[in-house]
Amino acid sequence: MDKQLFQKSKKIEKITFIFDLLAIVTYIALFLILFNLLELPPVINGRMNLDILQFMTPTYEFLGSNLDKWQMNSIISILVIFMVVAVPMFVINVKKNNTRTIYEIDSYVATSKFVQAMINVLSFNFISTGLRIYNTFVLIKFVKGYNAKEFFKSIPGAIRAKIAKMKEKKVVIDEENLDSYSASLKKSIRRQTTVHVFRLFGTYLFLVTMALIIIIPFYWMVLTSLKDFTGATTNNPEFFIGISRWNWVNYKVVLTALNFGVYIKNTVIVAVFSTIGTIFTTVLAAYAFARIEFKGREVLFSILIMTMMIPGELYIITNFITVSRNGLGWVGMPTGQNQYFLAMIIPFVTSISYIFFLRQNFKQIPESLYKAARVDGCSDFKYLTRVMVPIASPTIFTITILNVFSSWNAYIWPRIITGVGGVEGQQYWLISNALRDTAFVQESGRVMYNLQIAASALVTVPLLIVFFAFRKYIMNGIGRSGTKG
Amino acid sequence: MANLIIKIKKFFAMIGKSIKTFFWNVRRILNNFKKRVGNFLDRHHINPAGKAPGWAKALIYLSPALVVLAVFTFWPIINSFALVVYENYNMTNNTITGYTIFGNFIRVLTDESFIVPASHTGSSAVINTLIIVFISVPISIFLALAISVALNSIKPLKGFFQTIYFLPYVTNTIAIGLVFAYMFKTDGGLVNQFLKIFGVNVTGLSWVESNAVYWRSMFVLIFYSIWSALAFKIMVFLTSIQGIDKQYYQAAAIDATPKGRIFSKITVPLISPMIFYITVTSVIGAFKIYNAIVALFGVAGAPPGVRYNLQSIVMYIYQFIDGSNAGNLSVAAAASLILFAIILVLTIVQMQVSKKRVHY
Amino acid sequence: MELRLENLTKIFTNKNGQETLAVDALDITIESGTLVALLGPSGCGKSTTLFMIAGLVKPTAGKIFFGEDDVTKLAPEKRGIGLVFQNYALYPHMTVFKNILFPLENMDVPRDEAFERVKDMANLVGIGELLDRKPSQLSGGQQQRVAIARALVKKPRVLLLDEPLSNLDARLRLQMREEIKRIQRETGITTVFVTHDQEEAMSISDKMVVLDFGKEQQYDAPQDMYNQPGNLFVAKFLGNPPINSFEANVKNKQLIINGKEFMKVNLPDGEYFVGMRPENFRAKSDGFIVDIKEIFHIGRDTMIHFDFNNTNIRALVDSDSIEEGQNKVGLTIKPDRVYIFDKETGKVLNNG
What's the CA gap between C224 and C226, in Å, rounded? Predict the structure, then answer.
């Protein structure tokens, strides 16, 4: 093993990352610029005229050339495809490059470098292509010991050997000459294989069918959100549409017409503060339940667990009274005196199920660590922050994500408390409320399905991105805990 | 060039070091101070930590959570029992006209559209909810079990399928509900388009629009609730199936046990605690169905222009609290206590059943 | 630093109010700079004693002195002890360096000096190369070394080790035993070492304490304890294969075995327990003749089985002195290697 070659390959890869990153930044910048150029329908009587959206044929001037609507759509689509491919590839590569050890390098790694180089070509990232191909040869040298020249020379030989191998006839066993026992054994093996193949086929067929049922709504959502009005409402909807007909302007309409910015801001505020609060309260409480010995600990804990069975509607009635005028006075006050954010955050800054989940996690940390810390002069609180929290950090991270998700999906409580506030209350809607209660209709009253679905996609896609980024944490966390967020 | 890089690196290392040294020294001073205080206390035989009982320390850690829980969890439970005895509670003025013990319960139970089907809609919240619970829960549990067993038996693409099946968990119920409603559109909906392939006459075959009939709308609702509930169940089942000791399967394989028997005699009994847990939680969850109905049919709980509605118990409760026209909260409290009672009874029944069936 | 336990007692009370005497009035003085092993079967209170010295368990009665200081009521971090756990208790999320540094963070040490001390200590225990690794990337023996370094880095007055070698495999255990002895010698620190393995205790310690049911049985240097056990428990506990013990009568100052006079003893008539170690027998033609029941050849030695007063006795003798098929042999044993114990108290009567 040549350690120097390995280090060299790592270094090249690191330089490649700079250009990958540059490419990604370029894609995003171009996307944002072009997206910003997209022309919105005119506003008539304070309302956007959605009827003419699909009939507009604006031309855009970009970098000295005139682009029509279709060309513009195509370019943006290509940029989005580039981003969808390049960003995950970049993240995965960086992760792998940091963790890959010298023992994991094999010819497969070299091949995958080459494939990535080809992908780079397709996404106009030529510098990365060059570097990756160079890296491929470094890795070939590392794995096989060839130079680039010798490598090319070795190819014809390898191909010839492969062909020769394929030509080599399989040895046919003459079944006639087998004794009866061997024959029956062979038969039973064959039958077994057939059964196995059928079972495997059945299993995969079932799994694929179910997967399609799960995935089709997502596909249909993305597809419809890019269609124009006619395409979304026709009696014979298309299952695929060309990239020139991906109407990115739909998203721009949704973002501007719906005031989406405000709702996303509200949601983010609620999500951030309620998550910080939840982590703070649940970590402390879980620590008390897991480590501190006090009288009535088990009783208190089982009371908490029991309340998990009570339906949330029971709380909501009283909580509504609590936060409104006769209680804390956060909502239902005259305009301008309401504290909608407090009402949306404070009731959710703790969660019994997360306390339960964290306590289980804390309990698994061996007692001897605590003793060791005590001997080292570590106070209880320091032990919590320096030892327990870092060890339980995957769980805490899972809780964070789940909590953000639940804020993102919150519907009924924000609806109730903003409902008493009339127009003022609408300014404090969270994303789900806005999604459900704003309609995209034409003058004639027909629903603009493509826009409605685009709004749904706008709400769903960030969740999916977070999910794919932290897939392992989320899925492990759910599987282990059995608690629902 | 290289020299410059080294210099820059050194510079940052120096800054890093001085920051860290600063914090280290702060800690040092604190430690020193703590030590002195400790020594002082020791000299005078004062030991505050030793004398304070465990619960005093626990209280410090528990108080943030407990304060919030007290106000927004424990108080509501107590208050609900107070609310149900009020007569004509008016939330805006905080006034009541008197007290009643069963009045609010009787009002709920005799109310049209709670248990008794209302004359103008022909459907009631309790019946709707029961239909949803007793159809969607068994189907989704069975499907989830089947999928997780199938997932456990394959190797290639396992992670891929797992990820896909998990997707519904991380989506917004309202957003995907809108997509579902769109997919079940009468004209040009994906589902009708699909049925057309099989030669079904789809003209006027409505699901969520004005011509829909009760069971078709109910089908969409149940389909959607199963779709969104599968992910969580699959994850939990798969994790517990993977936790089963492989030796059981090896022993069964040597005994030539058929696959069906392995499933019914090994897999199911061994994960029965999880099946039980999931059954209880999903029955509770299904009783509380709300978001899915709102997403598919709007706050009215029915397709526009139809006679029936698909209101659930929770929806019935919320109509009293709904911000813009907050109604009689005593009645809402009574209804939610009834919901609680139903859930409690069902949970106890399931626990009794499980005592015989679940292998811990 | 001399370590003195005075009448140290611990009674655990469980939920039902039932009391268990874990440690029973221990009076032990451990001289400065020595390595003392606390030895006993599991559940004998040796770990409880160690944790009381550490301050993690509060004694029910009695006092603990470090030198002249009474530390009985002092919190663990103020006692100046280093503690090594059976499972090492390394913080899994910190690197080796941070693990060793952690105790110093809670003390009044300048940062540079702290770093120096961590590096010196890592070199002393032989893990200077591994400072950047996480505990999960280390082998058991390396983790053990880190744990010792972490215990020693704050320059404790006493080092306490709780069964530190029991999680290691046999070969590593031998090696680490020597390592611990070396480190202890180099630092000259008073060390208390808890173990249930008598061989480990005997090979590592300057002196050892044998405990049973929380009571001190004997406190002596290992070899002395082996040769002059104070009571039947100690005699039985030490040695592998274990000591042979059987009942025998003394008549007219003669020990009677198998109805014959075996040796002269200076004891009144009566029934006694007699102990003889298998390896103390010698085969000699003019010795006490026994009927051989079985012969096992184990390497350089040969084990023979025979009966003394209807009790099966094992003797380890030279392979050369026994031939296959031989059914009688003459055996001798030195008089001071025959231990006679009181039948009631188990105390040794003719020795020590």
Answer: 5
What is the C-alpha R_g of chain A? Answer: 30
Chain B neighbours, 3+ Cβ pairs < 8 A: A, C
Q: Which residues contact C54 (CB under 8 A, 6 or more apart)?
A: A371, A375, C76, C79, C81, C83, C160
Beta bridge pairs of residue C12? C20
Give C86-137 pLDDT, tens digit per residue: 888 899 989 999 999 998 888 888 888 999 999 999 998 888 888 998 998 8
What is the residue type of C46? K
What is the token pair recorded at A320?
């509504």
CA A406/CA A267 separation, integer angstroms:
10
Distance CA C342, CA C270 (A): 10
Residue C108 contacts B, CB cutoff 8 Å: yes
Statement: residue B50 has pLDDT above 70: no
- Return the C-alpha torsion angle C108, C112, C114, C118, nearest 10: 180
In chain C, what are the domain boundaries? 3-231, 244-341
Contact A309 B343 (CB under 8 A): yes
For the domain made up of C244-341, the CATH class stated in words is mainly beta
**Which positions ≥6 away from A383 have C-beta within 8 Å?**
A370, A373, A374
Q: Name the maximum alpha-carbon separation found in chain B.
A: 94
Per DSSP bridges, beta strands C3-13 and B98-99 are unpaired
ipTM exceeding 0.90, yes/no: no
Burial class (CB in 10 A: 0-12, 13-18, 19+), B171: buried
- Two tokens at C150? 């972490």
CA closest to C84 among chain A residues: A372
CA separation, residue C109 to residues A133, B19, B26, C97, C314 (Å): 53, 17, 11, 16, 59
Give the integer Cα–Cα distance in Å for C216 and B297: 80
Q: C270: helix, coil or strand?
A: strand
- Per-residue confidence (pLDDT) for residue B108, from 0 to 100: 84
From chain B, pick out residues whose CB is under 8 angstroms from the CB of A456.
172, 175-176, 178-179
- pLDDT confidence bin for C352, thresholds 50/70/90: very low
Which fold does the domain C3-231 belong to in CATH?
Answer: Rossmann fold (3.40.50)
Q: Which pLDDT value is given to residue A256?
A: 83
